Amino acid sequence: MPRVTSADVALESGVSRTTVSYVLNDKHGAMISADTRERVLAAAARLGYSPSAAARTLRSGRSDLVLCVLPNWTVGPVLDTVLDELTRELADRQLSVLVHHGRGPRPLAELWRAVTPRAVVGFTEFGAEDADAMRRAGIQVLNTSLDEDPRAVFAVPQTRVGQLQVRHLADTGHVHLGWAAPVEPRLADFAERRLSGVRAECARRGLAAPVVQDVDLDVASATAAVRAWRSAGVTAVAAYNDEVALAVVAGVRGCGLSVPGDVAVIGVDDVPAARLSDPALTTVAQDAGVQARAIATAVAAALDGAPAPAPERAEVLRLGVRGSA
Amino acid sequence: MPRVTSADVALESGVSRTTVSYVLNDKHGAMISADTRERVLAAAARLGYSPSAAARTLRSGRSDLVLCVLPNWTVGPVLDTVLDELTRELADRQLSVLVHHGRGPRPLAELWRAVTPRAVVGFTEFGAEDADAMRRAGIQVLNTSLDEDPRAVFAVPQTRVGQLQVRHLADTGHVHLGWAAPVEPRLADFAERRLSGVRAECARRGLAAPVVQDVDLDVASATAAVRAWRSAGVTAVAAYNDEVALAVVAGVRGCGLSVPGDVAVIGVDDVPAARLSDPALTTVAQDAGVQARAIATAVAAALDGAPAPAPERAEVLRLGVRGSA
DNA sequence: CTGAAAGCGCTTACAG
DNA sequence: CTGAAAGCGCTTACAG
Fold this sequence. Notes:
By secondary structure, the first copy, chain A, is α/β, with parallel strands linked by helices. Chain A has helices at residues 6-13, 17-24, 34-47, 53-60, 77-91, 108-115, 128-136, 158-171, 188-204, 219-231, 242-254, 272-276, 288-303, and strands spanning 65-69, 96-100, 119-122, 140-145, 154-155, 177-181, 211-214, 236-239, 264-269, 282-286, 317-320.
């Protein structure tokens, strides 16, 4: 079945394509007779006409799309919420958000060329050549960064996450700290930042360097790690995130010990399960709403040609003290 | 800065736009002299040329995009994995997957018109008019459904999820069952199916109808629900999903009772936290990999004009028996 | 108030 | 082996 074009609508309603375009885009509204307008609208509906965005984009040189490029690992609840919020925020500005999962085998270039977005928001680092090529094509390129980076429009200070964990643990009297690393290699970038924050804060406070153990998401792995920490004199563990923290809690139990008496545990993210574990997990929460609004504001500013307002970066993080530490 | 076009490349390398197109698309490869080819490639690189997909799509009438439309609530780990896998699977066929979160305020029509995808995969029901309009525009429309639906390319049998939960609970001797409903209204569609499966299986086995309680993701709410179940004589609870199940476990603890001795609990999804809770959660796992491959196959088949092969639908579900029931 | 015409950037028969 | 030309569907000055 052939595509219905504006020419078909023009023919059907007995006017020119110009008039069809004017009516359908509400342009020069008053200058089209009500009668003509009716006729065009009716014809369009009858024919089931829908304009080709490819043609429209080609003509006008811009689309209404914002492309979010995600890292190649599973999103997780925080980023998930950020994307939902962002979609809502940008919809107010007539912009549609599209998300690409993982950079996969296909080069990023093919993707942004294929959608010609107004802006690309990177939740993962992409190459300088990619960024340059996009800018050359008139696309706004925004970066969300893992940490304080002057070029980033928004940064969750990952080192600060680690710092906050240590602060709480130290304030509650612990001096021998452990750090629970995730096994998934794709998390390495994040893990590194958080760990370096933990290290730095330990050093600043004159504590011993944290004892790092890999912790897989099962009881056996966690139990082994806890045994190792115990024999190193560790009394409190900061975990990469809540899931890992939950594993550590299970490991402590697996050793016949208890949280926080024998080993205190602190996570990151404040996932729903954190509230529900026994004991409830003390954790560093990230405010997804604040992140989403900051990014939305930055995107809007970039599109308006205005400089991005620097958001208060620290505000995103909040320590939630519960039973585990 | 003006866009670099193929005409610029042609000028720079002293050939026609035709030749540029042939070289860049590896068309008629052998028929272009190696020398010319070099020159064009060099010029393109020097100028930083990247073809306009809008023009290309307009010309050829097709893009390489597959659009996935998600429901307007947070994705969750299973769908998340499905999307990652799908992206990988379809990349092999030169297709890029784009995801739209939530249907939001902007009409779906604007979105698919703006990207002119080859196929749209709906993980949420969309209106018949939308579907028709897309088909008219030559887009393959695929539906993932909540349950057995002959028009859907893939269905996770949600009623079967409930059935499996009841089967296990009944087999382990329980006759008075409870069902833990999620509070989030946007989950209603899913919840309804799962509950109806639970109801049906209870009826089939001659058990009393399940006692339904709303359970929010906090201890207080869950504790109240558990109290209500206890006074109704319930000894086992099937939960909407693992998160709700974890809440129920916390609620049982909140009542000073124990799992599974006083109340058995079974969830759905097999999230990582399920393995780590105390006791570990018995749950109905959904195999995201199987789902992703089935959908990828269906998309590929639709694009080839072949009828979608009906996947074995039951295979996706697997009962994982652990400590909680 | 409405129409004829140009042009966005690309690809692909069709000629050489 | 390479080029001139048409056309994908749309919008928008520019004429009437």
